[in-house]
Hints:
By secondary structure, this protein is an all-alpha fold. The chain has one domain (18-257). It is built from twelve helices and two strands, in the order H-H-H-H-E-E-H-H-H-H-H-H-H-H. It has helices at 2-9, 11-19, 21-40, 46-68, 81-98, 101-116, 120-134, 137-149, 153-173, 181-200, 209-229, 242-257, and strands spanning 75-76, 79-80. It has a two-stranded antiparallel sheet. A hairpin with a 2-residue loop joins strand 1 and strand 2 (79-80). Helix 3 runs parallel beside helix 9 (153-173), helix 3 (21-40) runs antiparallel to helix 10 and helix 5 packs across helix 11 (209-229). The longest helix is centred in the N-terminal third of the chain and has 23 residues, at 46-68. The termini are far apart. The model is unreliable at 1-14 (pLDDT under 50).
Amino acid sequence: MLTTLIWLIHPATLGVFVKTSGTWINVATVLIGSGLGIVLKGNLPTRMQRIITQALGLLTLFLGVTMAGSLLKVKLGIFDGVIIGLIAIVIGGLLGEWWRIDARLRAIGDALKHRFQGGGSFTEGFVAASLLFCVGPMAMIGSLNNGLSGDNTLLSIKSAMDGLASIALSSSYGIGVAFSILPIVVYQGGLSIAASFLAQSLSEPATNPSVLLTSGVGGLIVMGLGLNLLEVAELSIAAFLPGLLLAPLLCAIIEWLA
């Protein structure tokens, strides 16, 4: 009812809001978590933090499996989506290791932390939270999903994780953590809007092979993140990010050759 009313008032605004809804949910959870963290002042027991992380890890793993199922919906000539997804994530992982994406991201984070270490707890909290919330596959994949199809499920899960992390961070660093919403809006919102323009050029984004392949490969990466959260494995998740670009590229090449 409310959605219909908003649509009648301003349809264009509804379209932009839906495509970036996950970002606004993320902003809300970070603000709420930061407020709770300041109130709690670090009194949340470690064992309770571990249980929360494990619960989020299980849910993230389930979500990754669900997303990866998109590969089963793709068939391009003699190639199944699973095979194309496998090629994309293997070559993408090799490229990621060659380019040392994971190591470079860690180096950037360490450099920023070192650079702002003497700037007070406000700056340190802002930098630490911004890196944690924006550097990672869930932010990228979730924003693309939200922009392409309006599905904010992945960003909603990330929002829950970020909100809980905000409690722990803000109890140590203070209100600077709350200001990490600024890079969240710019990065995630920007990706979602860019993806929404891409979706407008596709006839059927929900069934387009390129979108399904990208979502499927993204699901495999999210599964890896879930395994990391559960401490079942220690995967270099960032190394597989090039696979997200290779999936639609492989799709275009196969369609062109067919």
